[in-house]
Structures are given as C-alpha cells and as structure tokens.
Design goal:
2 domains; 297 residues; MetI-like fold; mainly alpha
Length: 297
C-alpha cells in the first residue's frame, strides 16, 4: 500500500522537471561565451576595423586615387578573372568527385578522398614551386611548350593552376558528406521511371545539393581572391601584369605606401564580408528549404 501510494503521488513523466544536459552553471556558460567573443574581437574584428581605418586615414580622395591607380585596377581585374576561371573548374571537379565518391564503390576511393584534402596540408608555396618545376624554363614540360607560344609560369595560366590547387577541396568537401547522406534512392527512382543520366543529374541530384554547392562556391571564391603564397611563386609579381590584389598589397606595403596598401586591402576585406553576408542572408532567407534538404533524406 505504501508503494502504491508513493507511485500515485509521483508526478507524471511528462511534467517532471527535465534534467539539464550539462551540470555546469551559468557562470561556466557565460565565461566560455566571453572567451569566444574576446578571441573573435581581438583576432578578427579589430584587425578588420584597423584595415578600414587605415585605408581612409588620409581621406576619401586619397583612398579613391589608390583604387583607380592603373596598377591597382590591373590587379583587381586579374584577381576577378582568376576567380572567374578557377571557381567553375572547382565546381566541375567537386561535383564529379563527390558524385563518384558518394554514389559508387571502387578501388582507390579512400585514396581519392585523401588526395582531395592534400591542399589543406601542403604549403601553398610548395604548390607554387611544383608548378615552377613542371612548367618553368627548366621544367619537365618545358620542351613540350617551346615553340608553341604558350606560357604557363609568370602568366595567367600559372596563376589559375596555383589557385585551382589551393581551392580544390572547398566545393568537394561541402558536397561529399551531403551526397553520402542522401544515398542513391532518388537517382534510382528517377532512372527506373525512364530518366536519362543527365536528366537525373539536373532534375534530381543537382537540386538536392544546390545549397551545399552554393556554400562551396562562396568559400572557394573567397579563397581564390585572397590567395597569396602559391600565386606569389608562379606569377613573378610583375606589377600591372601578373600581380593580383594580395600581391599588389605587398608591393605597396614594401614601398611604404601604407595608405594605398590598406586601400587595396580594404577591397579584399569588403569582398570577404560580402561573401559572408551573402551566405548568412541565404541561410536566413531559405532556412526551411535548407533544413528540408539536409533532413529530408
């Protein structure tokens, strides 16, 4: 009877007070939040603010003069051109690699995944030196290029190759986990209904991964425009010809043209902020679609 009375007196399971996930108190939570905010403020926010402050220190007229200077405009055009070439190449590779890894089983699959991550672990300077070794005047492929009029090193093709190398993992790494999670059910259903391979890709596969693909493109584009190490090796740093924006910033800084250097650097910082802002806006605007795409499979 005592046991029965105690059971009847116990509150229902649904109204019992939930136990906290962790046992740490509010002090621990706010301390961790404060530490994270201090690090973000000190290592990210303050340097970013300093770039814009220094860029406009001598006024808007001096800032504008540094931006429209012929060598600066050439660097901006070259940076945008390289990104416009490198990003689509990475999209093609990322889609192909992610589709192969997620949808098929084959020998060397683990090796392919490892090689995709190689640019993360190899110094960009080493990547630039490799292209010098391959396509330089004394490189392995130099005899093939002689007489063709094609210049790889110290020209646009070399800059594009170096940029593609350092940005190679971004699109693929966004797509692979999602496509592995989704499996092959949708594609198999489409094919069983008579869809061709390309129609299945454009009508089924691509819509399912469009958000991951977009994020990969944004990250790849930001990395491509900001690349310095590999490009500095293969470009030759020819002012007004093979200098991208990061290289032009270094040239100006070494010449003690600090205001001009920070002015060009502010363009890079602004482009990075636009990329992050666009990503955040899309996540907010299409939150429902993104959640259903990730959780619907």
């Amino acid at each position: 009877m005592v046991l029965e009375a105690s059971l009847n007196a116990a509150p229902p399971l649904a109204v019992r007070k939930r136990r906290p996930v962790t046992t740490e108190g509010p002090a621990v939570k706010w301390t961790l939040i404060a530490v994270a905010l201090v690090f973000l403020g000190f290592f990210l926010f303050l340097p970013l603010v300093a770039v814009f402050v220094e860029a406009f220190r001598n006024g808007v007229a001096m800032y504008w003069a540094a931006i429209v200077e012929p060598d600066a405009l050439a660097a901006i055009r070259l940076t945008l051109l390289v990104a416009a070439i490198a990003v689509p190449l990475n999209v093609v590779f990322g889609l192909a690699a992610a589709w192969a890894i997620a949808k098929f089983e084959f020998k060397g699959k683990a090796l392919l995944i490892t090689l995709i991550d190689l640019p993360f672990s190899v110094s960009p300077v080493i990547a630039g030196l490799v292209y010098i070794l391959l396509f330089g005047a004394q490189g392995y492929f130099a005899p093939l290029l002689q007489g063709t009029g094609i210049h790889i090193v110290f020209a646009l093709p070399g800059i594009v190759l170096a940029t593609v190398f350092v940005t190679l993992p971004f699109v693929a790494r966004e797509l692979i986990p999602l496509m592995q999670e989704q499996g092959t059910g949708d594609e198999e259903a489409a094919i069983s209904l008579g869809a061709t391979g390309w129609k299945t890709f454009f009508r089924v596969t691509l819509p399912n991964v469009k958000w991951a693909l977009l994020y990969g493109v944004l990250l790849c584009n930001a990395r491509a425009m900001g690349e310095f190490g590999a490009v500095s090796v293969v470009s030759g740093r020819i002012r007004g010809q093979t200098s991208t924006m990061p290289l032009h910033v270094e040239i100006l800084y070494n010449e003690y043209s600090f205001s001009a250097a920070f002015a060009v650097a502010s363009i890079l910082a602004f482009l990075a902020l636009v990329t992050l802002g666009l990503k955040a806006f899309l996540e907010w605007r299409y939150a429902g679609d993104i959640a259903s795409a990730r959780g619907g499979h």
